């Protein structure tokens, strides 16, 4: 558990930049692209060249991630051909359900922005609400539905600060040009069209997975996938003027129609001598989420790396 309200003053964040100045070579100190690694996706930083890992514990204001599949370190390095693009990755993020304040959840994004990051690729593991987005699909997020934001749990609540807009528009939160770079990257990697979809991410606080009715509700409200992270980071990044691209890896289904069959019908049919086929009793688990992350880590890594290469070329 960390503090209730993280210090996000320019001076406090600048003290981290001083610390990093003592730990990193000059060429890594001004990353252009940031990556947030979702559950089980820390391998996104596996191919960084000249890689230096800085544990969150060496920095000021960072919490500790307590979720399996999340490390607690920033990885700095170079990606892409020739000299490479300087990049930084969060190996592990903070979730509000761990007991972190929302200002702690978004703090690393603010640090990345002050280091010079202009484009942020945020990844997460998510449950699918749409039969057209099966397990293993990578979903390019084009919009979000944030019930916590609509009900008074918005990470940007608080006194106005001169460096930030008071009323942040979200109609363009998910960068059109970064999403274009992503789909160009998918084409260049010859990924089948079904491998990368598009959709709307529903942010819920967690830590419970959705009840069937909650899943149906979110789907009826227009969400394609659901997860417990990302939206706070998107808001902070947009407030900092950073362009955002979000990739959700579908690790499980939330809405499974057969799960809702009437038990009365089932018993009546059985007694009438015409039993129905067994009704699926599926339960999602974090182990399953991590297993799919591992299975898809290589394609996620390749896609993120190619996208960063294309961003560097201005595609
Ligand atoms: O950090 P992400 O959003 O990738 O993690 C998801 C949401 C929960 O933290 C966890 C549930 O399995 O995975
Ligand atoms: N809320 C939520 N988060 C997830 N993260 C991975 N799968 C899920 C899911 O089904 N629901």
TrEMBL record:
Top-level lineage group: Eukaryota
Top EC category: transferase
Residues holding a purine D-ribonucleoside: 210, 252
Pathway in which this enzyme or protein is active: Purine metabolism; purine nucleoside salvage
Record GO cellular component, one term: cytoplasm
Example of a GO MF term: purine-nucleoside phosphorylase activity
GO biological process: nucleoside metabolic process
Chain positions recorded as phosphate binding sites: 39, 70, 93-95, 125, 229
One Pfam family it belongs to: PNP_UDP_1
PROSITE patterns: PNP_MTAP_2 (PS01240)
Bilayer-crossing regions: none
Keywords, sorted A to Z: Glycosyltransferase, Transferase
Keyword Transferase: yes
EC number(s) on file: 2.4.2.1
Biological role stated in the UniProt entry: The purine nucleoside phosphorylases catalyze the phosphorolytic breakdown of the N-glycosidic bond in the beta-(deoxy)ribonucleoside molecules, with the formation of the corresponding free purine bases and pentose-1-phosphate.
Family to which the UniProt record says this protein belongs: Belongs to the PNP/MTAP phosphorylase family.
PANTHER family in alphabetical order: METHYLTHIOADENOSINE/PURINE NUCLEOSIDE PHOSPHORYLASE, PURINE NUCLEOSIDE PHOSPHORYLASE-RELATED
Name this protein carries in UniProt: Purine nucleoside phosphorylase
Provenance organism: Gloeophyllum trabeum (strain ATCC 11539 / FP-39264 / Madison 617) (Brown rot fungus)
């Amino acid at each position: 558990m960390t503090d209730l309200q993280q210090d996000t003053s320019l001076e406090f964040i600048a003290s981290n930049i001083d610390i990093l100045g003592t730990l990193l070579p000059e060429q890594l100190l001004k990353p252009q692209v940031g990556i947030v690694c979702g559950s089980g996706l820390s391998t996104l930083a596996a191919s960084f060249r000249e890689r230096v890992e800085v544990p969150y514990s060496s920095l000021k204001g960072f919490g500790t991630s307590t979720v399996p599949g999340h490390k607690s370190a920033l990885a700095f390095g170079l990606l892409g051909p020739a000299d490479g693009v300087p990049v930084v990755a969060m190996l592990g993020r903070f979730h509000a359900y761990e007991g972190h304040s929302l200002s702690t959840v978004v703090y690393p994004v603010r640090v990345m922005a002050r280091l010079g990051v202009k484009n942020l690729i945020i990844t997460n593991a998510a449950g699918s609400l749409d039969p057209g987005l099966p397990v293993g699909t990578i979903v390019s997020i084009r919009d979000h539905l944030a019930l916590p934001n609509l009900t008074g749990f918005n990470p940007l609540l608080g006194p106005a600060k001169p460096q930030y807009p008071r009323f942040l528009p979200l109609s363009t939160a998910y960068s059109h040009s970064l999403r274009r770079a992503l789909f160009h990257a998918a084409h260049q990697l010859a990924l089948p069209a079904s491998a990368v979809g598009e959709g709307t991410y529903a942010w819920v606080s967690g830590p419970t997975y959705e009840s069937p009715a909650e899943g149906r509700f979110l789907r009826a409200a227009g969400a394609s996938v659901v997860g417990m992270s990302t939206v706070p980071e998107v808001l902070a990044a947009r407030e900092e003027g950073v362009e955002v691209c979000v990739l959700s890896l579908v690790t499980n289904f939330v809405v499974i129609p057969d799960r809702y069959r009437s038990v009365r019908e089932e018993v009546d049919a059985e007694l009438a001598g015409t039993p129905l086929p067994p009704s699926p009793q599926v339960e999602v688990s974090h182990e399953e989420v991590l297993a799919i992350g591992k299975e898809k880590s290589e394609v996620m890594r390749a896609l993120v790396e190619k996208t960063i290469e294309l961003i560097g070329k201005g595609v």
